[in-house]
């Protein structure tokens, strides 16, 4: 049972992802989390109003099962398997985060200040961030998991370009925009 409480090494997780991707390629399916939004909208009848949602959503029902499994798995892991895990951060990173007002740096898995203090600033950060992630994944034709895992394993050039864009955007956010916000 102890193996469930530990982080799995790359030589276990990597081959598992590769096996799943080979199965999806063999079955003619593509993996992606953001496509579930379109599937959910189609299942709820949005295809009657907007042609983008007018497709056979039942062909993507396996991906919805993955979505709900990820939500349930995340809940179970955070409430029953977390064991108060704290990521290992360098002292420089902890100091930098504390200078930005994140006193929970090095003590918590996520910045508790964003979720515990209900303020207009935190609400706007989470809302605008969520909108930008949703817009970006739709504009890029998929999310990071879809492009980085499924698209790259299919050797798709647009996925490589998108992954490079995600990486560069993340660097810009962390090093330029994040310090301005906090």
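Sequence proposed for the structure above (182 residues):
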């Amino acid at each position: 049972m102890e193996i469930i409480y530990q982080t799995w090494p790359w030589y276990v997780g990597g081959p598992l992802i590769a096996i799943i991707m080979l199965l999806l390629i063999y079955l003619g399916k593509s993996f992606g989390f953001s496509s579930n939004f379109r599937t959910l909208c189609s299942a709820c009848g949005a295809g009657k109003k907007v042609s983008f949602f007018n497709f056979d959503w039942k062909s993507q029902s396996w991906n919805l099962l993955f979505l709900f499994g990820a939500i349930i798995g995340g809940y179970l892991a955070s409430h029953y398997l977390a064991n108060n895990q704290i990521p290992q951060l360098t002292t420089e990173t902890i100091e930098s985060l504390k200078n930005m007002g994140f006193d929970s740096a090095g003590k918590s898995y996520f910045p508790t200040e964003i979720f515990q203090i209900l303020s207009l600033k935190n609400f706007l950060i989470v809302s605008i961030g969520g909108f930008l992630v949703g817009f970006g994944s739709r504009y890029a034709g998929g999310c990071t998991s879809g492009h980085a895992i499924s698209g790259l394993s299919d050797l798709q050039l647009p996925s490589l370009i998108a992954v490079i864009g995600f990486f560069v955007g993340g660097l810009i956010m962390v090093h330029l925009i994040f310090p301005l916000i906090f």
